[in-house]
Structure formats: C-alpha cells, structure tokens
Amino acid sequence: HYPHLFEPLDLGFTTLKNRVVMGSMHTGLEDRFYNYGKLAAYFAERAKGGAAMMITGGISPNREGWLLPAGGTMNSKMDVRNHQKITKAAHKYDSKMIMQILHSGRYGYHPFVVSASPIKSPISPFKPRKMSIKNIEQTVNDFARSARLAKQAGYDGVEIMGSEGYLLNQFLSRHVNKRTDDYGGDIHNRMKFAVDVVKAVRAEAGEDFIILFRLSVIDLVTDGNIMDEVITVAKALEAAGVTIINTGIGWHEARVPTIVTSVPRAAFVDFTSEIKKHVSIPVMAANRINMPDTAENIIASGQADLVQMARPFLADPNWVNKAKNGEVDRINTCIACNQACLDHTFENKRSTCLVNPQACYETELVYKKVKKPKNVAVIGGGVAGMSAAHVAALRGHNVTLFEAKDILGGQFNYAKVIPGKEEFFETIRYYINELAHLGVEVKLNTKVDKALLEAGNFHHVIVATGVVPRCLKGKLEGTDLPQVMSYAELLSGQKSVGNTVAVIGAGGIGFDVSEYLTANHGQALDELGAEVLKDPTYRPKAQSVSEWREEWGVTADPDYQTEGGLIETGDITPVRQVYLIQRTKGRLGSGLNKTSGWVHRAHVKSHGVIQVSGAQYEKITNEGIWITNNQGQSQLLRVDSVVVCAGQESVVELMPNVGDAPDAQYHLIGGAKLAAELDAKRAIRDGAEVAAGI
Ligand code: SF4
C-alpha cells in the first residue's frame, strides 16, 4: 500500500522510515512544565502509530519570543530535563523528534513583543518594539542556544519557524519589514536574519542534526513576497545548512482561509512543488492533506519529498499504520473543523480533537478493557451515540446501537451536504466501519420503547436520542404553509426551495443553510436524490482548487509575480437570493467559531446574502415573510420559501421518570442532554466519557 509514502528517505546522516511527518501544533501542554508527562504520552501514541518524524508545538528561544505569557521555552537545564520526556517517548517507537523554535514576533500576546518594524498586527493588541541590530544578533544566539539545548535533550533536530507571519516571516516580507538598515530593503537584506539563524544553529548543533525551516511559500498578505523572492530565500537557506524545507501557507492574519474545511484538499501543493524545482534538499508539503491517497499522490508525482500533517494526527494517532496496512476506511479523518484544536488555542485552552476526545488527554481519558462485559444499549445513532457505542465496544462490552432512521450519523447528515463540509462524510464512514469491526449490533429503523429495553436485558442504557429542530408552530403565523420548512427537511432532501429564500435564525446552522442555498458548487439534493446519501462510500464533488482560488483571490500561477500571491477575487453569481435574519441586534455570525467564523461570514457576504438583524417576525404569508425591522417599521421580504433554523429541542422521552427504578443504569448524553447549541465536540466527548466509565 502506498509505495511512495512508505519509501524511506535518506538524509545522509540519518534516515526517515517513511514520508509522513507530524507537523507542529500548539496543544497548550508545552507551556507548563508539569504537563510534559502528558505531552510525552501524546507524542508516544503518534510515534507508536507510525509517524516517521514529529515536530513539537512552538518553543520560544527567549522571553520576547513567547506566544503567550510564560509560554514554553528552551533556554535552561530545567527545560532540557522536561523535554527529555518527549524525546524518550518518540525514540521508544523509532520516530524522529524535532523541536520547533518559534519566535512569535508581533504575534505574541504579551507586552514584550518585538518585530522588524513597530507595526501592530491586526490579531494582537500589543504594538511591537522595533528590534535593534544588537537585539537581532542576540536573538540569533538565542536560537542557537535553544538548538544546542534541544540536542542535549535528545532531539534529532529543530524546526526554525519562518512562516505563518511569525518573527522571521515578519523580516522576510515587506508587509511588516520597513527597515532601511542591513535587515531591510531587498530580499537579500530581508532574509539576512533568517539565514543568520540557520548558520548559527548549524554551527552550534553540528552536522548530524536535522534542521527544518518552515518557509512561507505564499504569504497571502499585501506586500507579501513574490515567488522569485521565496525561491531566493529557499536557495540561501539550503546554502546556510538547512536539511529540509517545510511549507508554510499564509500569515495568520491573511483573509484567505488556509486550513478550514472548505479549503480543498492539497490546495497549495503546487507552491511547494515550485520550490522543489530550485533546491536539492527535500521539501515537505503541508495544509489540508488528511488522507493517504492525497499524500501518496503528492509524493508519487514528485511535487514534494515529504508530507506534513498536524491535525490528522490529533484525529487519529494510528493514521500511518492504518495506511500501511491498507485500513484506510478505518482512519478517523480530521474534518478540519478547528473546533477542538485551534479554537481551543485561541481560547487559551488545551487542544483536543472533535472526532477524537483522547487527543492530548491520553493519560486521562483511558479506554480500559473490561473483565466482565456488560450488555449496553445505545439509543440514537448520531455522533454521541456512535461515540458511546464505539468506546463501550472497544472496552469489550456487548453493545447494541438503536437508530430510528435508516441511516447513522444524526445531525452530521445535515452538515455533510453543505458545500465545503464534505469532510463530515468521513466521520460517519469511520464510525460505521469501526462499529462493524468491533461487532456492535446496529439496529436501524428501530424506534425504541420501554418494552424493547426491558426485553433486552441491558445493564446500561445510554440515551443519545439527540434533538429535533425547534418548530415555530403556534409562535409564528403561517408556519403551516407548504413553503415553510425546517433545516432538517431541506438538508435531508424532503423539501426544496424556490429562487428567493428567507432563513430564520443566523446561528451556525443558519449560516450553513445560507451557504447551501447560495453556493454555486456542490450539487443540490433535489437533483442528487437524497437516497445516495445513505451510501457510506458516496462522496459529493467538492469545489475544485481552481474554483476555490478564484473565489478567494489566490493566484493560479505557482510562479506568481503578484505580491503575496493575491489576485482580484472572481465574480460570484449566487444560485439564489437569500435573506438571513436574526432577532438580536448587531453583526450576524459574531458567535461563530474564532478560527472559521470569519470564513462563513465572508462567504455569505460574497454570495450576496442580505443580512437582517434586530428583526421581529410578524407572519409568513404566500407573499413572503413580514418582519418589523430594526427601525420599528413593518416590512415584507418577498420570498418563495422560508427555512427555519431556530435552534433545537432535546428528545428525552426514554429517560426514566423520577421515582422509576429501572433495572438498567441510564445515562443521558449529547444533544438529548443539552440542546442549547448543537455541539458535536461535546456530544462525542460525552459519549466517550460515559462509555469509558461503565
Ligand atoms: Fe481536525 Fe477538527 Fe480534530 Fe482539529 S478538532 S484535529 S480540525 S477534526
């Protein structure tokens, strides 16, 4: 399986056993010394799972370089001892361990921030101080000292973070570097700092030490570099002693999405490939690579020598071994939702993974094998129920999963048909295959009642009956009209809409529905036929890389001469006219997730969705929907159809009443427990935690 992916790579003084590298990912565990045991367990799992090489989250070379106050550093003997836990864990399973040295520059979230020029970034409240030449030289030494200490701690190498808009990238690009001394001006001056760092690290750490440099191959910001400049830097880095060039895509402040789920798979590989033509050291591709076919194609086609994935290793620590053994259908695919990893980082919380709650909790959420298997009924085949059934079966229990519909997946079945959310199919596929593999008895089309449960002789009953969309019947006149429907009726193909549509409710689902109704890629369910969605092997056609680039204004030319690789965005013709309405005043979508909400807001804007806030709903008639607008005036929005996305209600009928004394122990999880906002992250974790404890 995947012969190119599993061909070793000889680096001269050492060999990587395959081409799959776990990229750097800030988990939050790096920042506190008492969490290094947990961090070691996290890396041990991924090493055991077959990763050839792994890179830590960003570790700062000094205080100015902190990402957060008192962030992880490598500048003392104490640090060396802590990091040894990590290197030992990786080496036990024959994986190379690399420490990333990250100086955040003006992206740091603390008052000591520095940069090439004193220009505040749009994503940090702290204005940086301009670095003096002495300060730059000292920082070069700090990088070198960190690398030396990393070597002492047993690391096989370091990665120098030079992309995503961090300090060295701030020097490399005119976007921030306005200096007029030896470190500013043309690209030869702007790259001096980065090249000096590499030379100093090589001199300090010796020849038999891997140095990766994460190079921004496309900045995606104004005044960013052109490809000729990126190539000039790559060649200089090679000459200075870099072993492998890794890919960085876009600055964190870029207004082009680079890793969210709507970015097509492998959307940026041609930029890496362009670099490869000009250097003789290995190059590594990155961003939205999450499945073996994509990874194999990149290596087989010669576009890159290695692939880097970060989030897919959170989702499935055994990704590599599963690919090697041809068990691709059993990979728990990263759906690029960011909800439990990057969103957590921005909230200053420990990362984990929506589809794998064990990630970063390896020593805390443990699925122990049971000595005495019990009979477990799980009612509801949404993600909460599937997660509970999965973990209970993993532990050795006898599990029966009941689902009233003819399809597993629950609310994920609605999410998966949204253009740009095609990855959600993979989670359903994963669970279906795992449950079959573990011998879970899945009973579809089965409405459970108390009699059925009693007859089943269950020790535990896990109620994961989920939610139903909130209906406005009785609350809003006209909801009985045939052109009014719930999001569930629309997204399951039961009902279809006309050319003008009002969407009631601008939460996550209201945005999803608006995107579904306006996107000019993806296939509408009424053409497709909802039946096809029941096939676990079916995948809708995702947006192509070229369509996506045109929509977001990213150059199609890998040898781009436009600064930052940005171009004018293409004209978009929305499929329908949509009004997205909310009752609360203020900006729509302000409650969406930190790292992906802006992408959804940009989508509805570019697709001409008319956003209405502060509206009171009056009635729905055959003319459209009457509202009182935020000026207090009555207004008719002429629409053919109305889609209601006004929240959900829990379904809990099967929970015993107070005073009942059922034989089985009952547990309530997921949306059935709390419907306030649909939260797949909590649902999957709930299921896993309950099943881990029975
Ligand atoms: Fe991927 Fe979402 Fe898990 Fe992050 S939380 S690793 S994006 S599936």
Task: Briefly summarize what is shown.
With 694 residues, the chain is an alpha/beta fold.
Essential attributes:
694 residues; TIM Barrel; Rossmann fold; FAD/NAD(P)-binding domain; five-stranded parallel beta sheet; 23 helices; 27 strands; globular
Question: What can you see in these coordinates?
Answer:
There is one protein chain. The protein has 694 residues and is an alpha/beta fold. The protein has 23 helices and 27 strands. It folds into three domains: 9-337, Alpha-Beta Barrel (TIM Barrel); 375-469 and 649-692, NAD(P)-binding Rossmann-like Domain (Rossmann fold, 3-Layer(aba) Sandwich); 484-648, FAD/NAD(P)-binding domain (3-Layer(bba) Sandwich). It starts with 8 loop residues before the first strand and ends with a helix. The relative contact order is 0.10. The model has no long low-confidence stretch (mean pLDDT 95). The site of iron/sulfur cluster has 14 residues, from helix 10.
